[in-house]
Amino acid sequence: MIRESLYFSFAGRKSTDFPIVNVSIGSGLYEEALTSSKSIIETSTPGSNVPYFQRVKREPKTFPLRFAFLEPWNDEMIDDIIRWLDTDYYEPLFFSSNIDRVFYAMTTDTISQIHNGLKQGYVDLNIRCNGAYSYSNDITTPIYDVKSTQRIRIVNDGHESTFPEISIQKIGDGSVSIKNYNNNQTLEVSNLKDKEELTIDCLTRKIESNLPGIHRYDDFNDEYLELVYGTNNLVITGGCRLVFKYNYIFK
After folding, report:
1. How many whole angstroms separate alpha carbon 147 and alpha carbon 238?
2. What phi, psi does 156 have (nearest 5°)?
3. pLDDT in tens, the chain (251 residues)
């Protein structure tokens, strides 16, 4: 995906703003890692030749990037490229062959310029992502108007489970629950007021109400909704209007 793309976008700016193209130099065959590297965390115990497995640690994705100039550069162009690429925080990065696979990345090491002395050549840089995954662009479902009970389906086509942000507007006082039959999980918030607006971020585990001085953690059952791979079959109970926002997560 990365090597075959001529163009890319980083930090909200497209490479087509410059006379450059993404290139690969080598045998003509592309080599790309399909997943990030991982290590196995284990503990050895005396008297046993079999270590105790604890967990897997996935490293942040890293990959080189190289782009060539289509015309001789000047100092102003190089300065502009440095300001664009040399950030001190993670920025969205995606490539023209698949614009719906977004990395959150920054450059590491040095940005190197390889040239022939005639202001012709290419630039090498190394990319490090903020974690082991890339993401789809934001996916927002339709607004569901629930009178009492409604069944819906939400598709997760990523490689991993994802945790949505849920926006709820209560209709009438009472509770709202969302049950996912794929993993037998139920999210429930009680004691909501008519027209109260609630946002539940299931990834960061943050809950916000538009009512002043109201915190709904005590009215919440601590089950943050998980959307597993595939088609998630949900049942929503309680009068409300709600919408889900989430991303696919790719290894």
Report:
1. 7
2. -120, 105
3. 677 888 999 999 999 999 988 887 765 667 777 888 888 999 988 888 888 899 998 999 999 888 999 989 898 999 999 999 999 999 999 999 899 999 999 999 888 888 888 888 888 999 999 999 999 999 999 999 999 999 999 999 999 999 999 999 999 999 999 999 999 999 999 999 999 999 999 999 999 999 999 999 999 999 999 999 999 999 999 999 999 999 999 99
What is the rounded distance in angstroms from the CA atom of residue 18 to the CA atom of residue 80?
Answer: 9
Instruction: Tell me: do 115 and 144 sit in the same domain.
Output: no
CATH number of the domain encompassing residue 91: 2.40.30.200
Total tally of structural domains belonging to the chain:
2
User: Which domain, by its residues, includes 205?
Assistant: 139-250
In a domain, 100, yes or no: yes
In a domain? residue 1: no
> Residue 8, SS3?
strand
- Closest C-alpha among 61, 143, 67, 64 to residue 101: 61
DSSP annotation of 132 reads S
> How far apart are the C-alpha atoms of 111 and 86, rounded to whole Å?
8
